[in-house]
Amino acid sequence: MAQDLAHDASQEHGLDASHDHADHAPTGIKRWLFSTNHKDIGTMYLVFSLIMFFIGGSMAMVIRAELYEPGLQLVDPERFNQMTTMHALVMIFGAVMPAFVGLANWMVPLQIGAPDMALPRMNNLSFWLLPFAFTLLLGTFFMPGGAPAAGWTMYPPLVLQTGDAMPMLIFAVHLMGASSIMGAINIIVTMMNMRAPGMNLLKMPLFCWSWLITAYLLIAVMPVLAGAVTMLLTDHFFGTSFFNAAGGGDPLMFEHVFWFFGHPEVYIMILPAFGIISEILPTFARKPLFGATSMIYAIASIAFLSFIVWGHHMFVDGMPMAAQLFFMMSTMLIAVPTGVKVFNWTATLWRGSISFEPPMLFALAFLFLFSIGGFSGLMLALVPVDFQYNNTYFVVAHFHYVLVPGAIFAIMGAVYYWLPKWTGHMYNMALAKWHFWLSAIFVNVLFFPQHFLGLAGMPRRIPDYAVQFTDWNRVSSIGGFVFGASQILFVILIVQCVRGGKRASAAVWDGALPTGLEWTLPSPPPFHTFTVAPEIK
Amino acid sequence: MTATSASDIGTSRPRASYMGGLPKAAGTLAACVVSAAASANTSNGYNLPPGVTQISQGIYALHMEAFWICVGIAVVVFGAMIYSLVKFRASQGAVADTTMLHSTKVEIIWTIVPVIILVVMAVPAAELILKMEDMRNSDLSIRVTGYQWKWQYQYMNDEDGIGFFSTLKQDSNFARELHSGIDPNTVPNYLLDVDHPLVVPSGTKVRIILTSADVIHAWYVPDFGLKRSAIPGFINELWFKVEPGKEGIYRGQCAALCGRDHGFMPVVVDVLTPDDFKKWVEQQKAALKQAAAPEPAAPRSAQVLN
């Protein structure tokens, strides 16, 4: 035990202000396995997320390849359902959420002038739970019966027909949830307790604010998901009847509990993106964010409202009229603070001095394309029309617009924004622009036609379709293949940048106006930063 | 028996080859911009079907209203964005107005105006909800039960117990198998045809009582503007009334993931005139009587040992 303490003390260097020690990093595999450093843990989250993005992406490629033509060519229907289920689980819990946590780990301490996260060892556990959870989950592909195939929404009774993969699914969800809860606790405690003197909450950057609110959402709803899947577990193995009408239960109760988690979950996946856009746009418009306080209130309103709209996922389930009216109106109301954000971002551009570096390109694409996702969301809120849209490709188009050119583009924009800071090298600008334009154009080729398919009546989660849906499916699949292939450029660029490139200055974006403590540090920053608190004016 | 309806037009398009190559795909990309895909419902292939009930047409109107409002908002907002990106470029020498930090007045305006727009959208939506929830005074009740993977229809109004299963038609069922070698384009109404469709009269308020025998399914007919979940152990109620003159065959699908063959359990409704429907009911009753009649004594099998 004494040896452990000594080891930890030498790792933390907290009290030693000399530069040599601040930049001394441990070596070898121990550096990563036992890391308590927010930069290294952030890096691990981001690398993990990128790997998961490709795994989830290859499942999407199988889906789009199968849907290229009517008839079944590649997979049988059961395997197809495994693809759609796992694609969603991997993308949501393995790509998007860990990427945002990775960005938080890297940037929050730097932006608030803190030496590290408040709970560095718990930070390590939060990360390492994820590879373990995903080994369990992805391993189900190799089990008899294959991976779970009841949709990422896991509705009973269908999910209770899952075979050997059932305990892996439940356990993996529990582990991912625990990881998120611990990460969220860490983020809140860090922001509340470790801001540098002089940084009051209103001076905190928008990215930090967006994560502070997201962290509260996570703590509120991840335990709810845990409860829901535990009830699935006991119904499946221990003879309970939570979701079995014959035993006095109700399948709809699962939908209520799941979506009480599920709706805030989608805001968990977008609020940090809002924070990122609020960082990038002002930098490349050379103008402070318009209405910054209003923007914080808007995020808080969205977070609050996200708790009272879950019923809009259940409009077709036989909901009483009063509930239909309530959920319709509360859902429509979310358009107001979201609109306020879009207007404030536009006002930031207005009368600015705008340049189009890769982070800005992604932020601008977000602004346009996330708004399109917002419009389809508003349409979906209208109950009578939702009876047509529900469970069709219109819904698939909506959520992919807000998640791909929404959350994912924001993540990529953030990487393009901060990668020179992290690595100390500028990356290949031409490659970045190729990646951007291919992604931005083909994400639309991939998802826009899906609006048409849904309106024309094509249901979702089907491996094969009536022949009149062929044309738009073909277009969408082509978009998918090119979009997917373009992401390889992103990997090449990142690997090249890590290895070398033109030296990046501390401010990185010369000529632009980055504000924020991270730009006062060298690029790359030393292993330990702000071991002495900075002075905030 | 049935009049041909608009819904049957263009349901299958013969194609020259089964597997399209890249040049064909590129051609498709170009062509589909010009010609909308044909469809098995009154949709034009890229928009909602207006449908054949008052409710479906109300839904279509609400959808178009919401769509145009969104287009209007998009024109204004995207217009302001595009204008900014063109006019205020650093490369063209634009200098940022750093005094422009916030404006409470503007925040209030762009909070209130969206609320007003939302109210405008919500009022017709609420009215339509009220109409859709009015289950009173139906003329015919049918119990629909979802199974893995077919539908069961049972007519509740008469004591003769007309009821049957409705399963994906054989030709579609063979063609859809993995590596079947059958081109779906050669199968009429591929994946949207059944052996025994639901038969209902036009001009009649039909009430559906919906449940499931196993997992959650959903009964979905785009042309009626109808979708409802079929939940095991629970009953959902819905109604529709096809306008007179809109007789024909209307096709939908299961709209809730229900396992392996979720994509292969279509919903087909054959809407007849009230007179034709009466004739059909008589035919069904006669067939039931015949099936229930006692069979003549059959000789015992030679294999039965004494």
**Sheet with the most strands: spatial strand order of chain B:** 3-2-1-5-8
- Total discrete domains of chain B: 2
Question: What is the CATH fold-level name of chain A?
Answer: Cytochrome C Oxidase, Chain A
> How many structural units, i.e. domains of chain A?
1
Oligomer: heterodimer
| Gross CATH architecture of chain A | Up-down Bundle
Order of helices and strands of chain A: HHHHHHHHHHHHHHHHHH
Shape of chain B: elongated
How many DSSP H or I helices of chain B? 5
Cα Rg of chain A: 23 Å
Percent range of helical residues of chain B: 25-40%
For the secondary structure, the number of strands of chain A is 0
Secondary structure class of chain B reads: alpha+beta
* Main structural class of chain A: mainly alpha
CATH class of the largest domain in chain B: Mainly Beta
Strand residue content of chain B: 15-25%
| Poorly predicted regions of chain A | 1-19
CA-to-CA gap between the ends of chain A?
A: 43 Å
Number of strands of chain B: 10
The major sheet of chain B is characterized as: 5 strands, mixed
| CATH level 1 name of chain A | Mainly Alpha
Write up what this structure looks like.
The complex is a heterodimer of chains A (537) and B (306). Chain A is mainly α and 537 residues long. Chain A has helices at residues 2-12, 19-22, 29-33, 38-66, 77-112, 120-139, 166-193, 206-237, 251-268, 271-285, 292-305, 321-333, 335-349, 358-381, 383-389, 393-423, 429-456, 470-499. Chain A has a single domain, classed as Cytochrome c oxidase-like, subunit I domain (Cytochrome C Oxidase, Chain A). In chain A, helix 14 runs parallel beside helix 17. Chain B has 306 residues and is of the alpha+beta class. Chain B has 2 domains: 54-90 and 101-132, Helix Hairpins, CATH 1.10.287; 140-289, Cupredoxins -  blue copper proteins (Immunoglobulin-like), CATH 2.60.40.420. Chain B has a 5-stranded mixed sheet, with no helix packed on it. In chain B, strands 4-10-9-6-7 form a 5-stranded mixed sheet. In chain B, helix 2 (54-87) packs antiparallel against helix 3. The two termini of chain B are 53 Å apart. Classes of the chains: A mainly alpha (537), B alpha+beta (306). The interface between A and B is large, with 97 and 113 residues.
